[in-house]
Amino acid sequence: MLPGMDGFELCEKLKSQPETATIPVLFLTGRRRDEAAVVRALDLGAADFLVKPVRMPELVARIQAAMRTKPAREVAVGEPVGEPATIQGRLAFLQRLQQELDRSVQLRRPLTCVVVNLELAPGVAEQLSPEQVGAIEEQLAPEVRACCRGEDICGHVDDRRCAFILFSPAETGGRALAERIRDRVTQAEVMLQGQRIPVNVCAGVAQALLKEPPTAEELMSRAEEALAQARLAGPGTI
């Protein structure tokens, strides 16, 4: 036991600070394996969860695998430590999604894809130029990024559409992220030519099952299908 806090509290504290958010955290316990504890640890951003006894070669391999994911997130996209990586373009996002799917299977970590669409009032989008839509996206980008954890990956995949890769279950991670984005976007003061532009979001969430891992295209399609259903239900639907 740790003095003053348990492993979950320590992991949450590390992941909440920009300076330590990308440090890989592995749980090692002598207690009986508890699925709820494993899910909680992974949801908090842990890289792995091991139960004693663990042979030294396996422990070293797990640590090395966790360390490999850290520079991949920091260097490949060129983002500073503690900031969510941002990818431009659908193809680049799908390529990164496939890489992370492969890692999630190797490390036995849940992975969720979230697709978020910015929703403008009926008739407004048709009146805006691509440059004006881009200006709205630029104003909202800091709000969206503020909702992400340091290890989350964000992609701008189309006009008014972003996609996210999260290393957590759909309900506790993906849906929670979509709700945070919705709340911040709807409260944001988006201005265009001196007028406030009301913006809402719809989102689709899909989780990769470790027993039958999908391809990046399949997981993205499932998230986009969920998004299409949400848009039919109306702005703000997740």
From TrEMBL:
Annotated GGDEF domain residues: 109-238
Gene Ontology annotations for the cellular component aspect, listed alphabetically: cytosol; protein-DNA complex
Pfam families per record: GGDEF, Response_reg
UniProt keyword list: DNA-binding, Phosphoprotein, Transcription, Transcription regulation, Two-component regulatory system
Domain Response regulatory: 1-67
Transmembrane segments: none
Coiled coil: none
GO molecular function: phosphorelay response regulator activity; transcription cis-regulatory region binding
GO biological process, one term: regulation of DNA-templated transcription
Signal peptide (UniProt feature, chain positions): none
The protein, known as: Response regulatory domain-containing protein
Species for this entry: marine sediment metagenome
